[in-house]
Task: structure prediction
Amino acid sequence: ILDVGAESTRPGSAPITAEEELARLIPALEAIVSRVSLPVSVDTYKAPVARQAIQAGAALINDVWGLKADPHIADVAAETGTPLILMHNQENRQYRHLLPDIFASLSHSVQLAQRAGVPAENIVVDPGIGFGKTPDHNLEILRRLGEFKGLGYPLLVGTSRKSTIGLVLGLPPDQRVEGTAATVALAIASGADIVRVHDVQQMVRVCRMTDAVVRGWRPNGWSP
Result:
């Protein structure tokens, strides 16, 4: 899956209007869809952008605000039959109880989606590593990731090059491939179904090796 977005969703980044996002997004999205056969997800939290992106060929919606910024994204997903990724996010880093609070928020996002008519099989959840969380929160989520399977939906995890890895290893983003690899392998071992990465070639190898151990994946022509 290729994930395409035209507005930075990094914590602290400045928001842009839907019009500016569309002006950036649609030409690039149309060019990508015309050249590759892979499904493309659109990274947006605005319903008008999601709708036009689907018309331009996007096959998934990746909402980093889990319908909290614009619940009408659920209407777009329901009307078009498009799968919807719901990520946990919040504007502060304060929790009463970390995982229960995140579970409750994601469950609310799922309820909003289902009330709008999005079928359960079209929903993916994401705990939102790095979004509204401290580095210690992020490490605890990764350590307890298996508990998210209790929500009953496919689980997406995005740790690639994130600041927690940089803090642990004391490295800039372009030197965090090994740290990313460790978190990807651990996430898969804990039940992650999709991982979002930057270093695709290296992480595909990590995923295949981890899947071979955890899920019994074998390459074509396997002959031990």
